[in-house]
Amino acid sequence: MATVVVIDTETTGLRPFDRLITLAAIRSVDGSSKYELLYRCFDPRKDSEASAVAVHGWDNWTTRFQDLFADHARELHAWLSSADTIVAHNAAFDLHYVNRELRKCEIAPLSATTFCTMEASRERWSGKVTLDACAERIGIRRTGEGHLAVEDAFIAWNLYRNLTGLPLVAPPATWGRPDNYRPPLPRPDGVLPRRSRKTPGKSGGLWAPSQRDDVFDASRPLAIITLHVAATNGRIEPGELAIIEGIVVRAAARRGLPHSPADVADVARRLADIGTSRNLLTRAVGAIVHDSDAREALPKIMATIAAAEGAITPDKRTALDQIKAAIVKRIRGD
Questions:
Q1: What is the tens place of the pLDDT at every residue in 228-240?
Q2: How is domain 3-163 classified at the architecture level of CATH?
Q3: Which of 100, 205, 242, 316 lies at a C-alpha separation of 20 to 30 Å from 301?
Q4: With 70 as the cut, is the pLDDT of residue 14 above it?
Q5: For the chain, how long is the longest CA-to-CA vector?
């Protein structure tokens, strides 16, 4: 049996050089009502036109926190290339943007046979052949006001089924977010800042780069305390790195971020590379003194540091005493 993949995209605009924001794809064996769903969102590296935002609903702040298309390009190419036929409503439009993104990643364009439900609808019916107009003809209505790529792909799939003599398939009760969606930080007032630079290859995590940076900054004071003790024998022991990872997990949880081992490991490695100095320790102590959550966490962390390698060495005991003295001095000074 032939494999059919139905796709739909949302973009920053309608110009040839606009970029993808979302891609949804439904894969099924032709004739079967069973299907697999792929739904991804991307940082297009540019703002959407206001008219495009009104259609797809992805504001220019939220898209800053999403993955690059390049992070998922090879996976998407393999998934879509499994099709014998690629179906879309206005297939030339969707495939232009998908293939453009693939070319930017130096990946070959899709080569499967295409079936355009818009062109097929034009041959069957007179009048409008927009997706909404065709959906109404076959008895389908949207569940929401906006155009979600995932719902549009499902409508296009049902339209394809109708055009090829197959029964319709009931949609799910709700449409979830893309599989790789990352929640944004609170939107700042005024004009949005420029998009931060991104490097492809971070798709193993669930946090946006700015979220990783935020967790890094929040974890830094307690991590420096740990590094100060670790520096007594010139290296970071596995137990001490685990303590830093625990600090990162705590900071992420305070920010409501999803648990992501890949992001935790990435931030912990960056923290472990900070090094240590008297100036860093002084600044870390000052930050902890003025952070009630850090003050609450510090005794447990220090106890964990002391027990990390079994019997505590004299050098580590001295380092811990130095930290206690610095904190007491800072509190009395304040």
A1: 766 655 556 666 7
A2: 2-Layer Sandwich (3.30)
A3: 205
A4: yes
A5: 87
